[in-house]
């Protein structure tokens, strides 16, 4: 009880300013500064004769960050200024991300929307001379992509999830270390190396022919590390007290993992799996090598070549290489993006349905 | 002391239910401490460990495959594999190939991508998790995910047809004002900006959604009570983020960045479409020179002979090792503060 | 049903540090045993060794024996899951499952044990929540998230969750510390009821509570900072509060409520 | 299930080979045919398979443009029935093929698709450009760096050339196109091009781009640029092509007819059924365009897979037929002169 | 230094639900005011409106006025950050930063305020931890994670963290509920000292604690389930415990400790 008296000899705490209404910038300040920065950016751009509008934007962004920081530092003090700096940088980051995103999307939609119609979505390229004119469609490629990505996901997602579960929930020994080590290496495999590996083992050594399935083997290899690592991170953040609460109810570990840990992390896990799907859905090189190309519908992923959307895009761009080829390529790209986004939405819907209820 | 259970207990799992709840009349309950939950647990553990082992086996097989093929190639290389610039493995008279240019280009372009993408991605992730009004945050999160859905080849085309022309101005500007740094010097002005620098920017855009998405999910997991603890100490929003959110998310950010880096290191078609590759190692990163491992594989694979393919595998192996070193370093950083894990909150 | 707990020579470690040392005691069935002692003396740690929850902390380990009706919890072949099903626990800090509604939180243990029948579950939810004195406050929002409750409500929810699976022994780590007197009373009443059938161990900092609800009281203490905690004495509650045999116990109790 | 392979209504322009369906005699035993290899002949096979597929609906053909080397490798692994390649087989490839070609057979080269390499440029105000071997080689080797260089000016009297620096573009990937161009340089540059002919680019300076598509895109986009692509890419992208000054009386335009003259003068260097050709890049014949290329189909002379042999021969016959060769002419290819195609037809007849 | 708090007509909402309604009261400077009342009646909610922590919960909002020495916390131009710097808070559930060591936890607030000097920080760590009666237990492991402490230790760590920045008003939400009597006594002593200079508000379920430490006591109650909580009465502690003017208060207090 004597210890408590130690507080009595309070040292002077340095400059803790205790005024509630420190001078603040008006609410419209950020907007005003943004406007001024943009105007200045354009002025400098014109004045210095900078051709690229990108530079104008960068200058404006920089000005915005600097001016709001300076202004705030002068009026509100350094802590507020730093807060504003962070806020404005985060907004700039947001805008920086929007530019390429908008540009890419605009570009793709603009180039691709012209060909995307019912015929395009329901026909294959069979009997169409791609280089001579329009016509044909991507149905065969759509089928191929869905099947290959579906098969790859069916193989890689469970393996990836379980591996992450192993690493977070069970793994402490050497095996865990070794698995971690290899997952890390796996993240950097160029897709073509994965393709070559499958080619050498599955197609050459074991003698299997072209098929959608052998392509999905390579895709699964590419998908696994993304699933493992993102899931691992999410599982690590599940509070231990929840696991303990479950154990204390006499719930076995596996049920705890399945019904308490995984649902708590489901949002993040979904994101990880979707990222992985997005990544493999756009792969070209290994698919070309293992699945081949096929201008007709082949709904059997286990026998014979199939087309896939990225390969279709690649062919239309690099080989057909005329206005019709370009149009088909962009149209297919548009469909591919929409496809992945659709899957993403569905997955999120499912995840939200089972995800943590809000609350503090 | 022996712990063998009484025989009459040994068969059944304790009936878990009490139809009328615990305040109801007593119910005879059987119980044994040697329940059969080990079966489910064993199975689940088996599945988990089995998956880990399967993954390990695949990777070990790939590694072995690469090492084997590399061995063949390197033994036939007439020049030093690590210092040679050119790539001519199928030359019957004098097979000669080396990774100097490729390693440089890969590391530089991925490095640029990381330097640009990581801060921006963290910024966007924070924007979504802590800054944006909820109504904007959700749709914007979807939009960023959309970036991940764009196939590499489209990035390549967009990069070559849109990004490069728009970067030409920036390039000469950098040369004019930062040329003295040597790094930003442009050897040939006026040429399209199809350089490692541009590739770095493109890769940054490509890895952005990966890093953003994973970081965003991590930031969302920060327990509210820690954020409140920081706010109650009089932290501004940014200080709260620095005190409670970023340290909590640190391992997650690092992992996310490693995932992004993996993609940047291994990206093939987009780089091949944008980069003007050559066997010149130029320290001026704005110059349209250089190459990356994956780009080189794409460019050389189609026409490669058998030694040529092995040589490409040898390059792939080096990329493996690079990936490994970077990831190892990241793991070390994370492990150092393991006992400060957010899960102990 | 209710079981006797016999602890002998039990020590528990966190990594290299010994948190409690050489504890031996008997907890009688159909009775309430209270653990008291200064903060950090190892009450929670000891409590967690009684249902093998201690070992879930990485690096934590236990030495010694805990007999539950002659069966050593730490014996070979003993399934910790079965132990925890038999020996339930309420934690010091309320921890409802964030992904679950109030209803789901209560039936979590049952559901995961395979009980599916809606009517059974409904009954359990109502009786458990009533037992934890929470029913009236939440009966209209059973499908709302459990995390949106006040601190005290959360703690009562966790108590309801623990009693819903009807363990034979119930360990409670300061179950009432976040509760107002009314809820505290309700919980104490509940404890009084439960002890008819179960063995109950409760950690509390509230001497009066210990005096009110427990039949026997164990006093823990630690010799000094960095030293492991030890059991000082265990005796009938009345004795402990009126005439403890060890001076330290007397000091501790009277130091506050003298 | 809701998709359709039937494109007769969807396609506004029916397969252009359709009219020649009469020339196609389907195999008695139809099977799917897979081929892989050279990208240069990709569009030609595309045309053929469309026409052939219309006539013989039981035969489905696919062709995977993975590159000549990879195509030959896949052929030697028994993954494809035929391969397309920009280079005649090497002896090691032939040896390897003996594994797949059963019964003592081996792979042979059948010249089936011919083309030409255009020197494409994008210089404002310049519509016609004439170049010769040494000048072109020097431009691509970085020895001539501005458009108004005297060497270029001398070849183009009356043309106003800008003083801008020349932006050269070459292929970043290994390519038959590069091989043919550098073969031309090796023969005609008078020592300006020091490296041997090679599918890997060996010149100095300039920028590289991936594939002919990549090069075309750059030429289109970058002012004062020059590069080289197959004729079809030049046509598809509306690029201007230079005429080549050979020893002939006047510069030769890059047209299919002019390339056919050079091809007609080439000699067969293969033995037996192998019809590998030697092209004369140094030709000075009137109207003979020197930078030509030939791509081959690879098949086994004996020991082709029994179930695909019929279809293979039938398809090859159509490819080599006059109507087949005419069908690809409009796509920027050069119909094979009859001197060669006669030999090819004979060789196809001998396949077993 | 110490400030008077004047609340008038304050209501607080979680989304559409009103949690507390029309509360008006005055908290005197240099005094301790205790809030008592049944669980879920809105004590924590009200406490959090006093330093604008309520509004950080998504969808939460406040109506009414809180004057701090005549300055309305909810007035235009008031910076919530400045408010929280002035009005410190200890939460109901201990929440040390898991990513920080014990030392870093204590100085977190000061570091944010820009204090960097090691000697100053060292001094503050020692005095704050001593004030929270934790110093002896942790002085040898200041660099260990704060999350590895016992429940009571964690709560004392949070108290140390809050007093380290020397706020002018200190809000404590059941600060002692996880503490043993010795630590509780230490905290109560600390409160006694702090009130010489600061304004202190404490939520407690422990009537005796309210009686011991507070000068004035406010009793909150709610009319029924789903109804918002209200202030029933606020008076000198002695009056409240001996002779409350409202029957409900008397019932609540005597119902338990009569
Ligand atoms: N996870 C852990 N890792 C390391 N040490 C721990 C951990 N949990 C508790 N300890 C230490 O073990 C000792 C006993 O802690 P325990 O939680 O059992 O105390 P307690 O008696 O329950 O205290 P309180 O009344 O404050 O809850 C303390 O010194 C504590 O710091
Ligand atoms: N985040 C939240 N979202 C929705 N409702 C909430 C939230 N937090 C609290 N409530 C509700 O508001 C009411 C008041 O809660 P509050 O936490 O203020 O109670 P309290 O008096 O502090 O109770 P206790 O003594 O149990 O801590 C309760 O009905 C509670 O369920
Ligand atoms: Mg404890
Ligand atoms: Mg509360
Ligand atoms: O056809 P190429 O790609 O080899 O030019």
Describe the structure.
- The complex is a heteropentamer, with 1 copy of chain A (360 residues), 1 copy of chain B (345 residues), 2 copies of chain C (258 residues) and 1 copy of chain D (352 residues).
- With 360 residues, chain A is mainly α.
- Chain A has 2 domains: 86 residues, no CATH class; 217 residues, Orthogonal Bundle (MetI-like fold).
- Helices cover 71% and strands 0% of the residues of chain A.
- In chain A, helix 1 crosses helix 2 and helix 11 packs antiparallel against helix 14.
- In chain B, 65% of the residues lie in helices and 1% in strands.
- A two-stranded antiparallel sheet of chain B has the order 1-2.
- Chain B is globular, with a radius of gyration of 27 Å.
- The N terminus of chain B is likely disordered.
- Chain C has 258 residues and is of the alpha/beta class.
- Chain C has one domain: Rossmann fold, CATH 3.40.50.300.
- A 6-stranded mixed beta sheet of chain C has the order 6-7-8-3-9-10, sandwiched between helices. In chain C, strands 2-1-4-5 form a 4-stranded antiparallel beta sheet, with helices on one face.
- The longest helix of chain C is centred in the middle third of the chain and has 14 residues.
- Chain C starts with a strand and ends with a helix.
- In chain D, strands 1, 2, 3, 4, 6, 7, 8, 9 and 13 form a 9-stranded mixed beta sheet that branches. A two-stranded parallel sheet of chain D has the order 5-10.
- About 3% of the residues of chain D have low confidence.
- By secondary structure, chain D is of the alpha/beta class.
- Chain D has 12 helices and 13 strands.
- Chains in contact: A-B, A-C, A-D, A-E, B-C, B-D, B-E, C-E.
- At the A-B interface, helix 2, helix 3, helix 5, helix 6 and helix 7 of A face helix 1, helix 2, helix 3, helix 4 and helix 5 of B.
- Bound molecules: adenosine-5'-triphosphate (2 copies), magnesium ion (2 copies) and phosphate ion.
- The site of one magnesium ion has 4 residues of chain E, from helix 1.
- Chain A: It holds the Pfam family BPD_transp_1.
- Chain A: Keywords: Cell membrane, Membrane, Phosphate transport, Transmembrane, Transmembrane helix, Transport.
- Chain A: Its main location: membrane.
- Chain A: One of its GO terms (molecular function) is phosphate transmembrane transporter activity.
- Chain A: This is Phosphate transport system permease protein PstA.
């Amino acid at each position: 009880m004597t210890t408590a008296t130690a507080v009595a000899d309070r040292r002077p705490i340095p400059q803790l300013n205790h005024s509630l209404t420190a001078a603040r910038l008006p609410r419209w300040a950020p907007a005003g500064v943004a406007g001024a920065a943009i105007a200045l950016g354009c002025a400098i751009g014109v004045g210095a004769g900078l051709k690229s509008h990108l530079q104008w934007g960068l200058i404006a962004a920089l000005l915005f960050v600097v001016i709001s920081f300076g202004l705030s530092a002068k009026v509100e003090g350094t802590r507020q200024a730093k807060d504003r700096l962070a806020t404005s940088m985060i907004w700039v980051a947001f805008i920086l991300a929007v530019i390429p995103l908008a540009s890419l999307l605009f570009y793709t939609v603009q180039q691709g929307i012209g060909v995307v119609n019912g015929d395009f979505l329901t026909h294959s390229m069979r009997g169409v001379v791609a280089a001579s004119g329009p016509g044909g469609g991507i149905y065969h490629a759509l089928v191929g992509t869905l099947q290959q990505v579906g098969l790859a996901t069916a193989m890689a997602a469970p393996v990836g999830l379980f591996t992450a579960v192993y690493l977070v929930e069970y793994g402490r020994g050497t095996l865990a270390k070794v698995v971690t080590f290899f997952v890390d290496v796996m993240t950097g495999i160029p897709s073509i190396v994965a393709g070559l590996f499958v080619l050498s083992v599955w197609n050459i050594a074991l003698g299997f022919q072209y098929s959608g399935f052998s392509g999905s083997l390579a895709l699964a290899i590419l998908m696994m590390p993304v699933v493992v690592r993102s899931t691992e991170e999410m599982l690590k953040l599940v509070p231990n007290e929840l696991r303990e609460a479950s154990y204390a109810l006499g719930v076995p570990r596996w049920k705890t993992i399945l019904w308490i840990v995984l649902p708590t992390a489901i949002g993040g896990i979904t994101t990880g799996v979707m990222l992985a799907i997005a990544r493999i859905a756009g792969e070209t090189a290994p698919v070309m090598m293992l699945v081949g190309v096929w201008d007709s519908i082949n709904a059997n992923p286990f026998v014979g070549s199939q087309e896939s959307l990225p390969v279709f895009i690649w062919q239309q761009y690099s080989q057909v290489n005329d206005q019709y080829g370009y149009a088909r390529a962009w149209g297919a790209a548009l469909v591919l993006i929409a496809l992945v986004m659709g899957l993403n939405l569905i997955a999120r819907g499912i995840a939200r349905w089972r995800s943590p209820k809000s609350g503090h | 002391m022996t712990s063998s259970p009484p025989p009459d207990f040994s068969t059944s799992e304790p009936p878990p239910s009490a139809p009328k709840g615990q305040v109801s009349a007593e119910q005879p309950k059987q119980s044994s401490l040697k329940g059969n939950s080990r079966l489910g647990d064993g199975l689940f553990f088996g599945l988990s460990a089995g998956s880990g082992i399967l993954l390990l086996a695949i990777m070990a097989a790939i590694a072995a495959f690469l090492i084997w093929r590399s061995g063949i190639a390197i033994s036939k290389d007439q020049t030093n594999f690590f210092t040679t610039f050119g790539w001519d493995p199928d030359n019957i008279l004098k097979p000669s190939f080396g990774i100097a240019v490729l390693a440089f280009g890969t590391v530089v372009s991925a490095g640029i991508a990381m330097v640009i993408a990581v801060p921006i991605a963290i910024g966007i992730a924070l924007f979504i998790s802590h800054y944006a009004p909820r109504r904007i945050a959700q749709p914007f999160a979807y939009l960023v995910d959309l970036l991940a859905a764009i196939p590499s080849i489209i990035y390549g085309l967009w990069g070559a047809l849109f990004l490069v022309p728009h970067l030409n101005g920036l390039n000469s500007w950098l040369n004019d004002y930062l040329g003295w740094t040597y790094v930003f010097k442009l050897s040939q002005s006026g040429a399209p900006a199809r350089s490692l620098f541009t590739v770095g920017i493109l890769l940054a855009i490509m890895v952005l959604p990966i890093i953003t998405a994973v970081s965003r999910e991590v930031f969302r997991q920060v327990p509210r009570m820690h954020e409140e603890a920081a706010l109650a100490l009089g932290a501004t929003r940014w200080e709260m983020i620095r005190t409670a959110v970023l340290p909590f998310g640190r391992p997650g950010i690092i992992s996310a960045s490693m995932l992004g880096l993996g993609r940047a290191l291994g990206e093939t078609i987009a780089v091949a479409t944008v980069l003007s590759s050559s066997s010149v190692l130029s320290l001026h990163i704005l110059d349209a020179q250089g190459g990356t491992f994956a780009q080189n594989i794409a460019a050389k694979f189609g026409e490669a002979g058998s030694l040529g393919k092995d040589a490409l595998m040898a390059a792939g192996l080096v990329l493996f090792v690079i990936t490994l070193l970077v990831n190892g370093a990241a793991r070390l950083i994370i492990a150092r503060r393991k006992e400060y894990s957010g899960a102990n909150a | 049903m209710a079981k006797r707990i016999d602890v002998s020579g039990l020590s528990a470690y966190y990594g290299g540090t010994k948190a409690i040392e050489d504890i031996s005691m008997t907890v009688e069935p159909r009775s309430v045993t209270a653990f008291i002692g200064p903060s950090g003396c190892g009450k929670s740690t000891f409590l967690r060794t009684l249902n093998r929850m201690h070992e879930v902390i990485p690096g934590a380990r236990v030495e010694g024996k805990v007999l539950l009706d002659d069966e050593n919890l730490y014996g070979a072949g003993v399934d910790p899951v079965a132990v925890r099903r038999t020996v339930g626990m309420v934690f010091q800090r309320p921890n409802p499952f964030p992904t679950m509604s109030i209803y789901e939180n209560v039936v979590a243990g049952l559901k995961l044990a395979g009980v599916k029948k809606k009517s059974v579950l409904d009954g359990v939810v109502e009786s458990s929540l009533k037992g934890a004195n929470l029913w009236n406050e939440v009966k209209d929002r059973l499908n709302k998230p459990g995390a949106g409750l006040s601190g005290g409500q959360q703690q009562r929810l966790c108590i309801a969750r623990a009693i819903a699976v009807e363990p034979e022994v119930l360990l409670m780590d300061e179950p009432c510390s976040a509760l107002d007197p009314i809820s505290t009373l309700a919980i104490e009443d509940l404890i009084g009821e439960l002890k008819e059938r179960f063995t109950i161990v409760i950690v509390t900092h509230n001497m009066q509570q210990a005096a009110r609800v427990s039949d026997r009281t164990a006093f823990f203490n630690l010799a000094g900072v960095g030293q492991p905690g030890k059991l000082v004495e265990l005796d009938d509650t009345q004795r402990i509060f009126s005439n403890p045999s060890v001076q330290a116990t007397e000091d501790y109790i009277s130091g506050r409520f003298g | 299930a809701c998709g359709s392979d039937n494109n007769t209504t969807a396609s506004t322009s029916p397969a252009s080979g359709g009219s020649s369906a009469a020339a196609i005699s389907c195999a008695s035993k139809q099977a799917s045919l897979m081929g892989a290899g050279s990208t240069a002949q990709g569009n030609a096979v595309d045309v053929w398979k469309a026409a052939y597929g219309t006539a013989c609906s039981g035969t489905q053909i696919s062709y995977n443009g993975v590159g000549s080397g990879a195509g030959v490798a896949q052929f030697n692994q028994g993954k494809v029935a035929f391969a397309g390649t920009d280079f005649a087989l090497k002896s090691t490839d032939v040896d390897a093929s003996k594994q797949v070609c059963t019964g003592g057979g081996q792979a042979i080269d059948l010249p089936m698709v011919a083309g030409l390499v255009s020197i494409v440029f994008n210089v404002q105000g310049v519509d016609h450009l004439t170049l010769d071997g040494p000048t072109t080689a020097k431009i691509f080797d970085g020895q001539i760096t501005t458009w108004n260089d005297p060497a270029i000016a001398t070849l183009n009297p009356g043309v106003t050339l800008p003083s801008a620096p020349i932006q050269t573009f070459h292929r970043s990937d290994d390519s038959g196109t590069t091989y043919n161009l550098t073969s031309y340089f090796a023969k005609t540059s008078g020592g300006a091009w020091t490296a041997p002919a090679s599918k890997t680019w060996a010149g100095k300076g300039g920028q590289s781009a991936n594939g002919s598509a990549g090069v075309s895109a750059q030429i289109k986009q970058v002012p004062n640029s020059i590069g080289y692509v197959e004729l079809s890419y030049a046509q598809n992208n509306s690029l201007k092509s230079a005429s080549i000054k050979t020893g002939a009386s006047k510069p030769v335009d890059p047209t299919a007819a002019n390339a056919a003259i050079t091809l007609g003068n080439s000699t067969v260097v293969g033995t037996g059924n192998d019809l590998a050709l030697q092209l004369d890049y140094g030709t000075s014949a009137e109207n003979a365009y020197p930078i030509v290329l030939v791509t081959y189909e690879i098949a086994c002379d004996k020991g082709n897979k029994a179930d695909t042999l019929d279809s293979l021969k039938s398809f090859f016959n159509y490819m080599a037929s006059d109507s087949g060769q005419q069908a690809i002419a409009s796509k920027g290819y050069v119909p094979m002169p009859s001197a060669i195609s006669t030999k090819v037809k004979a060789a196809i007849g001998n396949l077993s």
